[in-house]
TrEMBL record:
Residues 3-179 form the 3-hydroxyacyl-CoA dehydrogenase NAD binding domain. This is 3-hydroxybutyryl-CoA dehydrogenase. Gene3D superfamilies: N-(1-d-carboxylethyl)-l-norvaline Dehydrogenase, domain 2 (1.10.1040.10), NAD(P)-binding Rossmann-like Domain (3.40.50.720). NCBIfam families: PRK05808.1, PRK07819.1. One of its GO terms (molecular function) is NAD+ binding. PANTHER family: 3-HYDROXYACYL-COA DEHYDROGENASE FAMILY PROTEIN, 3-HYDROXYBUTYRYL-COA DEHYDROGENASE.
């Protein structure tokens, strides 16, 4: 099977890596060679770590040998499945799927790793809504078990089955849900992170204390502010905006502090500064 991934950022790189670990031939595309080089370096580091722990079936070299890194979208023409993992912006994703629908062979399945954007809208843009689906991996992809599988209004049973089986072949546990803003994962997770940010803004506690309270008190592996920095504050804001717009309740209003930090370029771990310094 030939597996395509669009975007070599933290999610696209992770998805491509796990696909190659699972024996698929993988093409990764991004808009600039430097983004591909950066993505490849992250994959190499992760593979080295997993290899050291004896968690890979093949050597890192064999796995990397299954991967191609391209800037040209035409590289996806003969892919059986293409998973998109670019910026969380409906307009940008829809434009991309309009192009991909023309490039990928007609029987190929298109999937989005979006955190919150309506799958049905992206499916319409692709021109092949029955062969379109949400395939939502969790960060960090090489370590996290879940893939949330989101059916759009017109997704066929065959497409849902194919993507479910592919997630299983990647060693993941697929769980199905329907197409509502934020699906299940981010409808529940993101308001908690937003509330933690609101606590910082209101001076309820210092970031370290908020994270410590949730880690030690609730047994969460990461505190909510560490997790927001890890996900990317730009992505958190984009998800909250989709929830607020799509569900219409003010309980989903993005914290003004979150908005201000994104405006200031404080995006968390990826920019070197968020609630903490990296
Ligand atoms: N590849 C390979 N190894 C990795 C890795 C990667 N990508 N990331 C971390 N590791 C390794 C670390 O190097 C470390 O190795 P050593 O033990 O040899 O030092 C090991 O994994 C464990 O890492 P940590 O010491 O940091 O310990 P941890 O126990 O905290 O585990 C974690 C890390 C699994 C990420 C854990 O902190 C965790 O589960 N955090 C929460 C993650 C989460 O909630 N993800 C979902 C985010 S929401 C989302 O994804 C959806 C969305 O749309 C926004
Ligand atoms: P990121 O910023 O790390 O990476 C995005 C990558 O996409 C960048 O390398 C960028 O150059 C590339 N890109 C942007 N526009 C492009 C285009 N038109 N064509 C090709 N490449 C393009 O972002 P990320 O955290 O990997 O998030 C990607 C997607 O995955 C988003 O939709 C996000 O909501 C979703 N997601 C994120 C997380 C997370 O924890 N960060 C978890 C699950 C899902």
């Amino acid at each position: 099977m030939k597996f395509g991934v669009i975007g070599a950022g933290q999610m696209g790189g992770g998805i491509a890596q796990v696909a190659a670990q699972s024996g698929f031939d993988v093409v990764v595309q991004d808009v600039k060679q430097e983004f591909l080089d950066r993505g490849r370096a992250v994959i190499e580091k992760s593979l080295a770590k997993l290899h050291e722990k004896g968690r890979l079936t093949d050597t890192p070299d064999v796995i990397l040998g299954r991967m191609e890194f391209k800037t040209d979208l035409n590289a996806f023409a003969d892919c059986d499945l293409v998973v998109e993992a670019i910026v969380e912006n409906e307009g940008v994703k829809a434009d991309l799927f309009r192009q991909l629908g023309q490039i990928v062979k007609p029987e190929g399945v298109l999937a989005s790793n979006t955190s919150s954007i309506p799958i049905t809208a992206l499916a319409s843009a692709s021109g092949r809504p029955e062969r379109f689906i949400g395939m939502h991996f969790m960060n960090p992809v090489p370590l996290m078990q879940l893939v949330e599988v989101i059916r759009g209004y017109s997704t066929s049973d065959e497409t849902a089955q194919f993507v479910t089986q592919t997630a299983e072949r990647m060693g993941k546990t697929p769980l199905a849900c329907n197409d509502f803003p934020g699906f299940v994962s981010n409808r529940i997770l993101m308001p908690m992170l937003n509330e933690a940010i609101q606590c910082v803004m209101e001076g309820v506690a210092e970031p370290e204390a908020i994270d410590g309270i949730m880690k030690l008190g609730m047994n969460h592996p990461m505190g909510p502010l560490t997790l927001a920095d890890f996900i990317g504050l730009d992505t958190c804001l984009a998800i909250m905006e989709v929830l607020h717009r799509g569900l219409g309740d003010d309980k989903y209003r993005p914290s003004p502090l979150l908005r201000k930090m994104v405006q200031a370029g404080l995006l968390g771990r990826k920019s070197g500064q968020g609630f903490y310094t990296y």
